[in-house]
Amino acid sequence: MLVKNSFIQTVKNYMNKNVPKLYIDNTIRDAVEIFRKDKIMILPVMDKKNSFIGIMTPSSIFKAFSENASIDENMLPFIIKDAVTVNENDNLTKVRLFLKQKKVGQAVVLSDDNQVAGVLDTKNIIQAYQSKYESLGNSLESLFQHMQTGIMALDHNGTILITNHAAESLCNLSKEQSIGFHYTEVLPQLTNISSGDLTVIDIQLHRISIKDKRLLITYKSLSNESNDWGGIILIQDLTDYEQIANELEITKKLERTLQTVLDTTYDGYIVINQSGIIEMFNDAACEFVRKTKNDLVGHPVTRIIPEIKLEEALAQGFQSEKLEAMIIGKHRCFIQKTPIYKEKQLVGAIAKIIYKDLNKWKNVVKILNDLEKEVSFYRGELSLIGGKPFDLDDILTQNEEMGRIKHFARQSATGFSNVLLLGDSGTGKELFARGIHNASNRTGKFIKINCAAIPEELWESEFFGYADGAFTGAKRGGKPGKFELANNGTLFLDEIGDMPISMQVKLLRVLQEREFERVGGNDTIRVNVRIIAATNKDLKQMVANNEFREDLYYRLNVIVINIPPLKDRSEDIPILTKSITKKFSHLMGLGEVNITEGAMKLLSLHTWPGNVRELENAIERAMNCIRTDIIDIEHLPEYIQKTKGIRNLDSPPHLESTTQEVSQEVLISDFYKNNIDKAEKDAIDLALKQTGGNRTAAAKLLGISRSQFYKKFKKSNSN
Prior knowledge:
CBS-domain, Beta-Lactamase, 5 domains, extended
């Protein structure tokens, strides 16, 4: 009997469970009848207590007949008593090796109480391994497509067989533009490896540029003596690595700055982690406790300085504002204890020990507080690199109606009913769709399809996919459609009002039947997909005009969410403006950028027909115009600068005075605006001349980031 094992592929999962049995009073005829009826190769034999005693096989029958036994004789003398058995909880991999060692193809499966649970044969084992390998293959395919590194797989002739999503994005191409082509046709910059033997080389290639992207290309051979497969091209975006390197350097510099400040201050500092172990300190703290650094790091603070009771700062609700006066040894001192939080989680505490020149403690506190703010800022910046799934709470608003809409969207997220998002262009319908999907319990993907961007002849294949050989040029093996990709997930139908009537009929059928066939295929595919549709059109009016099917409208019109335009929630403009400014500051490497009161007033007066998307465009344009860290009126688009300030006839009197102030500011800025482009062009030309045409050095000379330099350079040459 094999030892039980916790491996997920156990005998119990794959054995034949409902197998017939023989008992000690059965005849040879009984065994023959069962073998003939059930087409099996092994029959367990039980005693009167229903305990397993052996097996009967076709060879046992032949043996009985060879000994001239009567078919109505008791079969007990001919059973195999030392039969091979396994336990239902045994590891299937070990069972396979066990059966191979015993040179048998099947075994009786027993439970822990020696009862027959079933029969295991070679077919069961093959099915188990097939399931395992299929799961592994699916996992590898998912991993391949979700890797951030771009990958192109080549055969030994250099023909591209596979590309992942990252490669398509980095190289600005689609699968149709890459698969089946030679890699030099897709990436002509790589002709320097075409003369080599792709089955043996392993080349670190030079950097290349594709539409302003700086990429690092590496070729890795995957062939060996027994498998002439080819290799893979790995594509990495150097911009990301440079940004990460800069962020890490900033963090290291900040840590060195913090340690230097701590070491040069008169006061002692001791930092502990959430377990009360000392992790950081300064020279003044060593002097205070009269111990070396080796005596402090890694030791509990309760053993080094038990009098200050720093572990109290790790308790919930601890107040860190007050100073405590105490005598430790021969020193009179003040102690301030402060908890340390990271993303609202308590990670440690810091003790400040003031015992030298107590009159200067306020200056030291100011320095430390400024540093703590800087650390908090850079931690926030670094957290943006990792990213996170979009949540409904990420939709910023101070508007009561918008708050109720977000609450209703979260309530409906866990259901299965279809959702219809209505609202003007740029109001954030896709953000609501993603937020609803991420707040649901659906395990599948969020798949988006823009109904206004698909040619009419491609509608059916995009939605339902196509089978192998469905039409000339079809991908070998076929291609899944959006419904298939969104199985157990969410299908977001953006611009649903632009869907042709012919496709509306087919969409309605899938929503009703939850099944479809691929184009050119005969197999029925069942799916579990939740539909979220969005449009800025009046579907009711379209139904009345026979432009949209009424039955489809009522199928989609289950949960309706109307998203208000930005003009109806003007109180959100300041908070959205600050958030967008912070986002572009991070993307452009500008640090903290602020906006003047006059510019904010002007933004609040605009009616924003393009809603949040228009606001983002206006802020992005302004960020490209500033030379300092301030966005003022002259940096805003001209059409916004000309805003009259009349949102409606009921505008309060204070808005009129505000409008006058803004208009005056616009007039004052005209001279600056008319001359800034020429000044920037002259500065860029002079910097390039002094650096011999080196743009990176020119950007450094001007004191701006490289991305800013390229944008300004491109702008100056286009004028």
